[in-house]
């Protein structure tokens, strides 16, 4: 029997995945992790899904919170990815999802942005080398929407004695292709990008975006092969530079909450350790559990209302702490900022790199 179907068969309807899924929460359990995986049998039997069932499969950010709690270890996010792959092959994925995949494959960014402005975050005040064995990858959300995160990251690296190079032809990491089951295209994409990065002669790539970091570090080896360069998460490097005494943060005496990045929850001690070095106290927002912002994997473009409602679960916590919320994911930041503007809510959130820069100046 098919392994995934066998796994689905083990579901005991315990409801644990409903309780942690933010999409389930804001839809009163209309769309749950369990309801999504229960559609696999129909898809494998070649039965037509109705629109509500298709919506269910695409109403997931693939945050992984459900995988974390399932007592019988059903690979829920892998099954959702497989269901999306089948729907895409049959031309049944949402039109916006197909469009974003095409944008990435043809133009190198989800929003089909002008590639010539991707590196416009580079300013004279930043020390960058034209060539180096250390490269910095900003990623789409930073390069096109939140360039202050790239500036503060480079300034921190410079203060710590590191002068990286920018990637001349940087492009999207391709996470959206992977989340939506476009794995054959993602394989070719990963091959091209890894070979391009290797052709630059770099030994290390520093990534600021948790999504980019995860894709370069974990997904490219599965899709293509282990790259010849090391992939480093910017906050890990900041932490190391503090430990080595190359960065000496001043105490800021603030109290914040943290908007964790689902993609790298396993590394969520690192931002807390950096904040503690800055004298910043943390009040936990979601008990340190994976809790999605409601944006990724196509939920924002395909289901804007549900995506906004999910974002509000974070935004309503902004006021819980005197000095707001700290984020370390540029896509969470971007999504939450959009929703704050749309709902006239105050955006009381900053990226951790801006706070660290303030503390070392
Ligand atoms: S991955 Fe996240 S959003 Fe998707 S079903 Fe699981 S908990 Fe819900
Ligand atoms: S947590 Fe696992 S076993 Fe429980 S309802 Fe969800 S999928 Fe089924």
UniProtKB/TrEMBL annotation:
The keyword Zinc-finger does not apply. Keywords: 4Fe-4S, Iron, Iron-sulfur, Metal-binding, Oxidoreductase. It comes from the Archaea. Residues 8-74 form the 4Fe-4S ferredoxin-type domain. Residues 134-217, 270-336 form the Cysteine-rich domain. The keyword Cell membrane does not apply. GO terms for molecular function: 4 iron, 4 sulfur cluster binding; metal ion binding; oxidoreductase activity. Pfam families: CCG (PF02754), Fer4_8 (PF13183). GO terms for cellular component: plasma membrane. SUPFAM superfamilies: alpha-helical ferredoxin. InterPro entries: 4Fe4S_Fe-S-bd, Cys_rich_dom, HdrC_iron-sulfur_subunit, Helical_ferredxn. Belongs to the HdrC family. This is Fe-S oxidoreductase. It comes from Methanococcoides methylutens.
